[in-house]
Design brief:
By secondary structure, this protein is an alpha+beta fold. Helices cover about 20% and strands about 35% of the residues. The protein has an eight-stranded antiparallel beta barrel with strand order 2-3-4-5-6-7-8-9. Strand 4 and strand 5 form a beta hairpin. The N and C termini lie far apart (about 75 Å). About 20% of the residues are buried. The N terminus is likely disordered.
Length: about 200
């Protein structure tokens, strides 16, 4: 049997990567319509030093975000609480299509030496996604970043500005935006979250 019919094993990896890159290019317009995708691997922004998880727990309201396909409603908020097993219960809610919709997930701290680098998952079948707290004063504002590599060819990133109240002073929002820009996050597609007409518990 002639060996000319077969590609050398050493060619499979670069060939596979080339095919995936072509697929990524073909799908790029569709992908970027719902998320924020950028070429290259994920950046590694600085996170909150000496992060105190206990102080971070409780309710946070979404003030602004980069596009996220799973967040299309208004009155978006997240509530964090410690479970008896030591994991963190994440309860997200939003008002979408005339009803309140919730999603419960689990957060963990993989490395206590970097306590601000949290992992979050909303399904037993999906890995933990990065949820990095870049900055927070615990009482009014938090800046959160998430990024996932896709074969190190490109990455999908999310960023959120959160508040302990539904509305933040404009100077506080600018501070959060400036911090993200300093870390190289493109805010062109960041939008404010509608927190008007919301019902509080």
């Amino acid at each position: 049997m002639s060996s000319s019919r077969f590609l050398p094993v050493s060619l499979f990896v670069p060939l596979e990567r080339s095919m995936l890159a072509l697929c990524a290019l073909a799908l790029w317009p569709l992908l970027t319509s719902a998320q924020t995708y950028r070429w290259g691997p994920c950046p590694t922004p600085k996170v909150q030093p000496s992060f105190n998880l206990q102080q971070y727990l409780g309710r946070w309201y979404e003030i602004a975000k980069l596009p996220a396909s799973f967040e299309r409603g208004k009155c978006i908020e997240a509530n964090y609480a410690i479970r008896p097993d030591g994991t963190i219960r994440v309860l997200n809610s939003q008002f979408y299509k005339d009803k309140v919709r919730t999603a419960e997930g689990t957060a963990v701290v993989p490395d206590l030496r970097e306590a601000a680098q949290i992992g979050v998952s909303f399904s037993y079948f999906t890995p933990y996604s990065p949820y990095w707290i870049l900055s927070t004063d615990y009482n009014s504002v938090a800046v959160v970043y998430s990024c996932t590599d896709i074969l190190r060819l490109f990455h999908v990133e999310y960023a959120w500005i959160l508040g302990r109240s539904r509305f933040l002073p404009s100077e506080t929002v600018r501070y959060a935006q400036d911090l993200l820009l300093t870390e190289g996050v493109d805010l062109f597609r960041m939008t404010a979250t509608d927190q008007t007409g919301c019902k509080d518990d």
